[in-house]
Design goal:
Largest sheet: 8 strands, mixed
Distance between the termini: 40 Å
Number of domains: 3
Mean pLDDT: 84
CATH topology of the largest domain: Threonyl-tRNA Synthetase, Chain A, domain 2
Strand order of the largest sheet: 12-16-17-24-21-20-18-19
Radius of gyration: 30 Å
Low-confidence stretches: 1-53, 67-125
CATH class of the largest domain: Alpha Beta
Strand content: 15-25%
Number of strands: 29
Structural class: alpha+beta
Number of helices: 22
Shape: globular
CATH superfamily of the largest domain: Threonyl-trna Synthetase, Chain A, domain 2
Helix content: 25-40%
């Protein structure tokens, strides 16, 4: 059972550098150029061809022009006809090998999601990941235009893959010299030229042999590998005019002029191994973003700025919550500082208390186990690349645990159960260790040692629906307590290759659907997207700025009970296999803490804040009174501290910088009247309140998990 942290082994995201200044200069140059007398089209075309100095690129262009005439009758624009594998009504996240490399697959379409507009009557909204089909075409075409521009400016660069992605696109190039900031500006300038020429995008179908011949002619070895991975025929090619072409299934816009050159930007360059394999060449991945109009691009830039303001790595350091000691301890290992550790303690305590109240029992398991256990579970065969190397101890081999599941199974094996004992619900906040490449780690979102809030339920087949419904209820309660009330739910069903008979799969999938219907939740079906050992439900939460985060998972497992020969005794005193349900709500406690930090931008709910009240005495004369107030609050469970030694204005600024929820000024008048002058981070001045009133409000928030004072 794999946590949300490592479900997708992607490369690091692009940095947040803003290229708006260079874009502005480019636009001003474009504006000045527009006022000059326009050259004839023939002259422009001639100048463009003169820049083609590379023999390989010249061959590509010549080949494109040669085949264009022969195939023009059969070539159509992308809107006239699309390849069968292309579709925007895909539900879930599965795409076949072909749609992955072309970027042709689309997120689940959601027509009720508002698209961004430039209307004065309605503010511009950043589109969600359920983008319009037109926007996906824009991004896919932008990736092709960028690749064409790169090979115009840097003819020795070799193309690999270039899909659209959430809020943008990228293309990977083999170019050992690397791309600099100045190179990026040159590439973007060349893209402007291609857009202004308004080249048509045309689709062609060829045989596998013809595609291979053309690829060899232009010397693109990575494209040959891609061609080998395509299992269907005919092979589709998209042309940009007669100048450039690429293997692609589409879809695209009709012509390059449909791209708004004021609505895209190149963002960053990152390293990426070919096929994600460290043994293969390092590629240069150029990230870009593309939108339908300039207003959408501006909304995206605003979104990026807000996301940067909420970066949990910066907030964690500023508020003294945690650190990652790369130099001292190594990458991906989290050090919780006192304030962050206290917050973690409160989260864990809440989690444990709620689970005990819901009929779970708590387990604690070791951090290592003999290698034989991981062989029995199948981790050694199917998960070894994520595990650390074995450790030899007294002639026996041990390994750090990457998952908690086998440990809970070992506990089950230690008992004897009848059908009357089921369901059994065991939960653990278990620390696991997984190998992550140094280039993929990112703050708390991807680390090497983390805590999973694992639970495993052993039940009868006719108990599945009730147990899943109970898990969904618990998930909703916990996520709502932390302020997440909007979810996206995905149901993944049986893949082509699976273990277990048809009857148990049908029963399990039906139970998951019934539980979701009982909850009244809408969900997306990812047909065939389940694990080989069972179907699952994934829940994504929506944060304060509209981002989706994969957290909770409910996974049925028909594999491990078989591998470990688990059993219970039925009514006829015969042994039967129990149904095993894996379940996590946070996924990874570290990752969830990072999401929580960014959701609140460090302005945590009152019940969760590491320091709830800061007392600010304005004179030494009230020191005794201030100490007495602090003791009274502290004795009632309020997290309080006293800050002195500066002028009042600076004390307040310091408290606000630390995002303290409640600031209480203490002067002579407050000391005489047993009151406090209260100011909150969220609402500013509240007024003068009695100490008992302040105490009551904070303790009520603690008891009810209240968000504010």
């Amino acid at each position: 059972f794999e946590s949300a942290q490592t479900r997708s082994r992607t490369h690091r995201a692009p940095n947040e550098r803003d290229d708006s200044a260079s874009l502005g200069r480019a636009r001003r140059r474009t504006s000045r150029r527009a006022r000059r007398p326009r050259r004839s089209r023939a002259r422009v075309r001639t100048m463009f061809r003169l820049t083609t100095t590379s023999p390989a690129l010249a061959t590509r262009c010549a080949l494109g022009r040669r085949i264009a005439g022969a195939h023009r009758a059969r070539m159509t624009t992308c809107n006239a006809r699309r390849h069968d594998v292309v579709g925007t009504r895909v539900v879930g996240a599965r795409r076949d090998a072909r749609t992955r490399w072309t970027g042709a697959g689309a997120s689940a379409a959601a027509s009720d999601k508002a698209n961004a507009t430039a209307s004065d009557a309605e503010p511009v909204k950043l589109l969600t990941s359920d983008e319009s089909e037109n926007l996906l075409k824009i991004r896919h075409t932008s990736a092709h235009v960028m690749a064409m521009a790169v090979q115009k400016v840097f003819p020795s660069a070799q193309c690999t893959i270039g899909p659209w992605i959430d809020r943008g696109f990228y293309y990977d190039f083999y170019y050992p010299e690397g791309f600099t900031d100045q190179d990026m500006k040159k590439i973007q300038k060349e893209m402007y030229k291609i857009i202004r020429k308004d080249y048509p995008l045309r689709r062609e179908e060829v045989s596998r042999e013809e595609a291979e011949r053309r690829i060899r002619e232009i010397n693109e070895p990575y494209k040959l590998e891609i061609l080998e991975a395509i299992k269907t025929e005919p092979i589709t090619i998209y042309h940009i005019g007669d100048e450039w072409w690429d293997l692609c299934a589409g879809p695209h816009v009709e012509s390059t002029g449909k791209l708004d050159q004021k609505a895209f930007a190149l963002e960053s360059v990152a390293g990426a191994y070919w096929r994600g394999d460290e043994t293969k060449p390092m590629l240069q991945r150029i990230y870009g973003t593309a939108w339908e109009n300039e207003a959408q691009l501006q909304a995206y830039n605003d979104f990026k700025a807000e996301a940067k303001r909420r970066d949990h790595r910066t907030i964690g350091k500023d508020l003294g919550l945690f650190s990652l000691q790369q130099d001292n301890a190594g990458g991906g290992l989290v050090f919780w500082h006192p304030k962050g550790a206290h917050m973690r303690h409160m989260i864990e305590t809440y989690w444990k208390d709620l689970h005990l109240a819901r009929g779970y029992e708590l387990l604690y398991s070791p951090h290592v186990a003999k290698q034989e256990l991981w062989k029995t579970s199948g981790h050694s065969d199917f998960y070894s690349e994520n595990m650390y190397q074995p450790i030899k101890v007294e002639d026996e081999m041990y390994q750090l645990k990457p998952m908690n599941c086998p440990f809970h199974i070992v506990v089950y094996q230690d008992g004897y159960y009848s059908y009357k004992d089921l369901p059994i619900r065991w939960a653990e906040l278990g620390t696991v260790y997984r190998y992550e490449r140094s280039g993929t780690m990112h703050g708390l979102f991807r680390v090497r040692g983390f805590t999973q809030d694992d639970a495993h339920i052993f039940c009868l087949p006719d108990q599945i629906t009730d147990e899943i419904k109970s898990v969904l209820d618990l998930t909703e309660e916990i996520l709502s307590t932390f302020g997440f009330k909007e979810f996206e739910v995905n149901l993944s069903t049986r893949p082509e290759k699976s273990v277990g008979d048809d009857k148990i799969w049908d029963t399990a999938e039906g139970a998951l659907k019934d539980a979701l219907q009982m909850k009244g939740w809408d969900y997306i079906v990812d047909d065939g997207g389940g694990a080989f050992y069972g179907p699952k439900i994934d829940i994504k939460i929506l944060d304060a700025i509209g981002r989706k985060w994969q957290c909770s998972t409910v996974q049925l497992d028909f594999n491990l009970p078989e591998r470990f020969d688990l059993s219970y005794v039925d009514r006829e005193n015969a042994k039967q296999r129990p149904i095993m349900i894996h379940r996590a709500i946070f996924g990874s406690l570290e990752r969830f803490f990072g999401i929580l930090t960014e959701n609140y931008a460090g302005e945590f709910p009152l019940w969760l804040a590491p320091i709830q009240v800061r007392l600010l005495p304005v004179t030494d004369e009230v020191s005794d009174y201030t100490e007495g107030v602090a003791k009274k609050l502290r004795d009632a469970g309020v997290r309080v501290e006293i800050c002195t030694g500066q002028r009042l204005a600076k004390l307040v600024r310091t408290a606000e910088k630390a995002k303290i929820p409640v600031m209480a000024v203490v002067g002579r008048e407050e000391a005489e009247n047993n009151t406090l002058a209260v100011r909150t981070f969220k609402d500013g001045d509240v007024g003068t309140l009695s100490v008992d009133e302040v105490l009551s409000r904070v303790t009520t928030a603690n008891a009810t998990k209240g968000q504010s004072f």
